[in-house]
Amino acid sequence: MNSGTFTLQPHIRRLWQADQPSLVDHFQRLDTASRRLRFGGLVSDAFVKDYAEHVLSLDAVAFGAFPDGKLRGVAELRFLLKVWPWSAEVALLVEPSWQDEGIGDALLNRLISAAQNRGIKKVHMQCLRENMRMQSLAKKHDAVLDFDIGEVEATLDPPWPTPMSVYAELFG
């Protein structure tokens, strides 16, 4: 359980194949409401397990937040390289008991840096219309929000890479 608001950035790092068991555990700990908000609908335990086993792929970069030494938040940047200019999709999730602690913001910052450093010009985030946390997070990062019947798409425009953005990604 969390111990209050962070005064320091939570420990965030890139996830690797060795983190696979932690990823599966993280996604399986999610309650029904969190799963619905993350995946846009009700999903089974088998779906969540299969998804978690495939998060780490060649067309993605994933970061994890470890505020208490255990994986509590995951952020994914999936490349859409068949689209020009290069684009990516972002998905992130923080376990309910760790929300409102700055973890989602820190994870999104890392994803934006990763997109910036890879020359990604458009970053897209989709969420259900009732997911106010994601919408607030997107607005905080100057995203343009497009509202549809049941969902919202946020679009961010990362700046060009800089030596500082590369350093920030490499060393957090």
Automatic annotation (TrEMBL):
Annotated TM spans: none
InterPro entries registered for this protein in UniProt: Acyl_CoA_acyltransferase, GNAT_dom
Organism field: Litoreibacter janthinus
Annotated ranges, domain N-acetyltransferase: 10-169
Gene3D superfamilies associated with the record: 3.40.630.30
Keyword Ion transport: no
Protein name, entry field: Acetyltransferase (GNAT) family protein
CDD domains: NAT_SF
Top-level taxon of the source organism: Bacteria
Keywords: Transferase
GO molecular function: acyltransferase activity, transferring groups other than amino-acyl groups
